[in-house]
Amino acid sequence: MVYYIIINRVCQCQWNKFVYMPIQFAFSLDCFVNLCYTAREEMKVSKKMSGFLKTIWNRATAEHLPLLEEIETFGADGEEVIYRLLCSHFDCVIRNVVVPHKNLYLEKDFLVIHKNVPFVIEVKNWKGEIGCEKNGDFYQNKENGVHKTLKSPVGTTKQFIEKMRSFYKIDTPVCGVVIFAEPDCKVTTPDEMDGVALFTPQKAITYIKNRANSLKQKERSIAPEQILHCTRFYSRDSEFCKGMLADCFFDCETPDGAIVRIDTNRLAYLSVETQMLKMKDKLFLTYTNGATDVFYNRDIVFDVVCLDGTCRKIALQRVRHIVF
């Protein structure tokens, strides 16, 4: 309104014709600026609404992962029991360790470092009678009378140790152990084959302690933080992905909205509870030392290098449980 009054008064003066055009130009420029600002604000609102609707859709169609107690459905309960047993006896227990092999990766269940000696551990959940043929193959006699030939875990453990020593340039002993986790299995194999120990859980604990004492290794051949290990993501029906995290840190929120950075190297498990109405997920964190925390997630995405060499992006909202 002020602009119109000024323009009319100027126009009444015939001698001020040259003043009118600059004022009109300034008025038009001001209108254009206001129009651009309004359009920009509308675009911001539209973008926020678009992101909000996208978040709703992703959360509504996301597939969840099972709780910790549901992992038994996938045959991982034996590994879980052994992991807790190892942690109760040893300070350094790393699960799901991997080493590069050709264009892929080899994986073993655990690596224990005790008194500077690394122990590569493979866990088998075989039931019935477990024995070994003369040619080195393993066999299983089930209670129903079925006889089954099994692939020897000795060969794969030896191969892993060889690749591990080469990859990390280790020139000190690395020991291999196969643990038969099933309580009802009857093991008739020798205690050692080709340098790899074969034991039930309690005997394996005793072997690791005695072996480390006998080697008397003064210096650690490899630091735990150097060890490559993979993370397992569980869906509603089964494990749907395992691989190495590209970044070992992620940010989440406290209940009051503060940002907290989490180091995955300190995590043992993470369970996710989706909260649709709040548009965020409740995260139940369990650390390697047994401590727990509760945080919240809105848009965390993990970059995962899978063991087959491919890369995947996994949104945490699609996750029910993670084993680190």
Give a nutshell description of this structure.
The protein is an alpha+beta fold. Helix content is 31%, strand content 35%. Helix 1 packs antiparallel against helix 2 (17-61).
Task: Estimate the strand proportion.
Answer: 25-35%
Strand order of the largest sheet: 17-16-15-20-11-12-18-19
CATH architecture of the largest domain: 3-Layer(aba) Sandwich
- Total number of distinct structural domains: 3
**Multimerization state:** single chain
Shape assignment: globular
User: If helices are DSSP runs of H or I spanning 4 or more residues, what is the number of helices?
Assistant: 5
Q: What is the CATH domain class of the largest domain? A: Alpha Beta
CATH topology name of the largest domain? Trna Endonuclease, Chain: A, domain 1
How many β strands by DSSP?
20
User: Spans with pLDDT under 50 lasting ≥5 residues?
Assistant: 2-7, 13-20, 62-75
Straight-line distance between termini? 67 Å
Percent helix = 25-40%
Structural class: alpha+beta
Q: What would the average pLDDT be, to the nearest integer?
A: 80
Description:
The protein has 5 helices and 20 strands. Strands 17-16-15-20-11-12-18-19 form an 8-stranded antiparallel β-sheet, with no helix packed on it. Strands 1-2-3-7-10-9 form a 6-stranded mixed β-sheet, with helices on both faces. Strands 6-5-4-8 form a 4-stranded mixed β-sheet, with no helix packed on it. Helix content is 31%, strand content 35%. It has 324 residues and is α+β, with helices and mostly antiparallel strands. A hairpin with a 4-residue loop joins β11 and β12. α1 runs antiparallel to α2. The chain has 3 domains: 59 residues, no CATH class; 157 residues, Trna Endonuclease, Chain: A, domain 1; 94 residues, no CATH class.
